[in-house]
Amino acid sequence: MLDPHGTPPEDVLARASNLRAEIEQHNQAYYVHDQPTIGDAQYDALLRELQALEQRFPAVLTSDSPTQRVGAAPLAAFSAVTHAVAMLSLANAFEEEEVLAFDKRVADTLVQAGVIKPSEPVTYACELKLDGLAISLRYEAGHLVQAATRGDGQTGEDVTANIRTIRSIPLRLNSPAPAVLEVRGEVFMNHADFERLNVMQAQRQEKIFVNPRNAAAGSLRQLDSKITAQRPLRFFAYGWGEVSDSLPATHDGVLQWLAKLGLPVNREQHATVSGALGLLDYYRTVGERRSGLPYDIDGVVYKVNSRQAQRVLGFVARAPRFALAHKFPAQEAMTELLGIDLQVGRTGAITPVARLAPVFVGGVTVTNATLHNEDEITRKDVRIGDTVVVRRAGDVIPEVVGPVLSARPAHAQVFQMVSACPVCGSTIEKPEGEAVARCTGGLFCGAQRKQSLIHAVGRKALDIEGLGDKLVEQLVDRARVKSLADLFTLTVTELAAYDRMGVKSAQNIVQAIEAARQPALDRFIFALGIRHVGQATASDLARHFGSIEGLMRASEEELLSVADVGPVVAQSIEHFFSEPHNREVVAALLDQGIEPQPLATRPQQSGLSGLTFVLTGTLPTWTREQAAEAILSAGGKVSGSVSKKTAYVVAGEDAGSKLTKAQSLGVSVIDESGLKALLGDA
Ligand code: D41
């Protein structure tokens, strides 16, 4: 009989050691490089095998076993840790001039000290400034022995049990490891992980986090590390404290060494540059990449690369003079939610819009922000009168992220959804399982009529220049324009009498209207605003049918024979032309002498044109329908099945066989934020 408490057999020890190494390799691949090397089921099997060995032979269990990342017993409180070497802070800059001044000060000091020659540019290591929490990790003889928050820079809190659950942080360093190594870096959460966490929190009726930083902070400050173990935290190293070995001569070199020891370093996003122009160039390129990054950053960090030069420069107060954080304009701000208006879109979709006390965010003053839909308001528990976090990232529409619960006033009011359209009084419908409520009024609804007209005259449709939203609104409100055909009866004299119009601008508009009398057939079809018919489909339909009459006559079967027209699109087109008022609009247009022009055979290029997307799983903020609409209107196509021709599979929570198929065919898989990035670039 084997004694489980005695020395385990050689082969068991060897197998356990191999398993530990293999699992940690997969952890690194997944959490550091975002490139999973095996499937979840295989990973679980390895972990279970190791657990079984450890249970059977307790002597094979080591403190750095990946099975020990599940969290330890809850703490009563965090104990204090005094940092062996203080954790410094970073000087901030917002303006280019401050960056130029920083470089000049650095260069002057280094020239004076004889470290560089006059007119020799300073070499800098540039990094992203992750928006997370600063942490110090202490390794002794290669083992992670302590982890502490930054605190006031001198003393932090002992969060070792929590940090040990973070898969990207090695419990043991690769050899040869120094006797003592303190690593500093940032703990953070990816956007996709954050969205998934919030969906889970909502399902369990637990706290919704307003942003990834807040979620990371909340997770790290858990006294029960079993909870932290379930939070998808990540880590990147950017600095160091006490180190027993001598270090490489440059910042860049030290980071390379840390990476060799197995620590996660954000190498792909780093650069070494020369002089102030190099710094500003890095700032600009990162600014352009920012919205496509999988995590939040609030700026970039510049560090003099040479460690000798760093020593010469020294410190002021608590910040090194060799480093500078160059911040981006804040993407989030807090303000008061004054009220919630309902906006009715072209297809009747009803969007709750927050009316806000003006706030400066993402470089502009914002007074409105989307709340997406009723379910989102409930999920986030946003109430009128709340102080809310507003986010405006890049060119994306500003959104309300969530309430600041600690600032909730007693009079905060829960939002009540109405059952009738606020514009036309028609019933509002919300199909089971869909997030979006819709006004059923169709073109009877003034709001839908306005939005349809605005869509029809837009740049991608009939392209009638000068006919802006405000004028369309007035024309509809005065019942002068009831449908698209009425636009073609407008005269200079009557237009000149409208608000902020002169004879000259009225003439220009009438001229633009006249120029739109012979639109390309695809623009004409797109202008009709048929649901699910974006630019690309409109152009396929125009080419296939050759005339609007041909399209109107088409059976569902014929529609399905058009490349990339699936059942949803075919049904939508059929439904559109089965509505008498839609047929009347087309007839009236043709009566007005509008002559859609058949297309030449070369397809035109637009944003996502030529790209086919497949949507699968539950996306964090969009319904699949909303995602499809966004893709179609950017000129892309949406298909129901994955093939080699699929450009991207957009995968959400619980994605199933389509995701597996995409992986087996080598088709690119992106998440919702990836899609938004593509749309932003399109
Ligand atoms: O990504 C960051 N947030 C970041 C923070 C970074 N990339 N580098 C940093 N470098 C330093 C020095 C130069 C002082 C070692 C930092 C921070 N400090 C820092 N984070 C919080 C306080 C200071």
Structure description:
- It is a single chain.
- The strands form 7 sheets. Strands 14, 15, 16, 18, 19, 21 and 22 form a 7-stranded antiparallel beta sheet that branches. Strands 2-13-10-3-9 form a 5-stranded mixed beta sheet. Strands 5-4-7-8 form a 4-stranded antiparallel beta sheet.
- The model has no long low-confidence stretch (mean pLDDT 90).
- Helix content is 37%, strand content 21%.
- With 682 residues, it is an alpha+beta fold.
- The longest helix has 23 residues, at 10-32.
- The structure holds ligand D41.
- Residues 88-90, 127, 129-130, 134, 150, 186, 238-239, 301, 303, 320, 323 line the site of ligand D41.
What keyword list fits this structure?
682 residues, alpha+beta, 26 strands, 37% helix, binds ligand D41
Question: What does the largest sheet look like?
Answer: 7 strands, antiparallel
Helicity range: 25-40%
Structural class: alpha+beta
Strand runs, count: 26
- Give unreliable regions as ranges: none
Give the distinct bound molecules: ligand D41
- Range of strand content: 15-25%
Overall shape: it is globular
Mean pLDDT equals 90
Separation, N- and C-terminal Cα atoms = 68 Å
Q: How many whole angstroms does the radius of gyration measure?
A: 30 Å
- H/I helix tally: 25
